[in-house]
Model the fold of this input.
Amino acid sequence: MTTTKRIDAPMMKPRRVALLAASCALAVPLLPLPEYLVNLADLAGIAALVALGLVVLTGVGGMTSFAQAVFVGFGAYTTAYLSTVQGWTPLATLLPALALTGAVAWLVGAVTVRLSGHFLALGTLAWAVAFFYLFGTVPMLGQHTGISGIPAVSIAGVSFADPRRFYLLVWAAVVGCATLTINLLDSRSGRALRALRGGGAAARAFGVNVGAAKLGLFVYAALLAGLAGWLLAHFQRSVSPSMFGINAGVEYLLMAVLGGAGQVFGALLGAGIVVVLREQLQVYLPQWLGQTGNFETVVFGALLLTVLLAAREGLWPRLAALWPAPPPRAVAQDTGLSRLALPERDTQLLRARGLCKRFGGLVAVNDVSFTLRAGEIMALIGPNGAGKSTTFNLLTGVLAMTGGQLQIGPETQGRTLDSITPQQAAGLRIARTFQHVKLVGAMSVLDNVALGAHLRLRPGPLVAMLRLDRRAEARILAEAARQIERVGLVEVMHQRADSLALGQLRLVEIARALALDPVLLLLDEPAAGLRFKEKVLLGQLLRQLSHEGVAVLIVEHDMDFVMNLVHRIVVLDFGRCIAEGEPTRIAKDPAVLAAYLGVAEESGP
Done:
């Protein structure tokens, strides 16, 4: 069966821009421009490669780095040493330069990306300082004098010593890397990378190896910087430590932020502005102030602060807003991904035995046990602080169990686990929503939901960069569209998630969980923020899932919603299970009435 769906195409416009940029790159050397302008264009292109890495690292992955100038230095020094001391041809040094840069980035990143927030930024700053002094003290690298006499690049007997020819080499690299980056972000792997910016909890819940994704992104940004360093060495024909210091690292970060962190073409725009502005400031500021000095650094600091206050998303989104966004295109797709088999109804899917979680001296969950069967809808209820969300986090591996065991899977093939990770839970087809909505606001509803299908098809990043993943990507998006339709949000499918109301966001989370094709669905306060009609439709959807054989576990405070929906209720109070049974019995249980539903009437004076 084939249907026609409106599938979002956010990357079509940038791809056309890339082709236009490539055409301009071919034409510029033919124009009668002064040589210093061509030199500036060369430097802007080299800087754009570094800024492009920071765009994906900082704007997409949420990791701020001051160390990119150091990775430029590794690429530059490697080719400088091999081509001057060892006598290698410049082109032969490209792969060793990238290999060394990537290896250093992997070693540095394996330690550094474990940090977060300002600790990560400070960690990269420490590496930047350490390697800067390393470049200046190693005798084979010329110490503070550096290395000079670097030969020009020559390919097939054609020399690129002339800046106009070198321009073609630089901007071919820029356009090629920008296209590869666009392809990467417009893919399954790209959605996983964009989900990192929200902290990674949602990405982990749907099978993304967050640590590996962060490290891969760190290395990718470093490789772009290493390529820039290789080009810079053969353009300047000399290298010295001063080219790769802290000031250079701050300038590269300014380029990414100024153009628009997270915007591929913002890197090109920011690099162009900063390179030209730096050139002009270095000429005119000493004349105006009557003395020499690095006064442009002060201007750049003020400019960065102004951008953060006035245009936090950078300049590129504001320029892009002047043109209408490309409309979603109609694409003929099948109904999405093939569903895996569900266990027979009443088959035991989950058995929790003696779950316990302590935070220091606080016991949040204490000896909680229950079972859940295929097709059953069960609720965890209790007052605030009873341990409901903590229990959810134990079941999905967000928190490690202090004690207890889980048996997950059909009764005859279940596995007993003392611990579980979010990736393992997703692999076992356990999907969840969160008490506090965890969506990527800058991504469309469609892309957020498609993240849920991350494990169902697995084209890798290299396949995506070469755009060989289109069939798999089309199937993933079709599956996401199908789940969005099931929760009744077709009309907002292509909107940014941060434009939706709270009730709609919760429905998007449910659609994302369904895209995993779960056997066990955990919903943390799914009815919060929903209107009456939306609650009715949600109840109908959950009953349909139950009929299909999906087990559903709900944490919810809306007792009317719970009592009319679930088959069984487990009541928690101060981390302990105080009652379990059918809704009619729970509604009359004295312990439950006293703890949560209301105080039981006294029988006498």
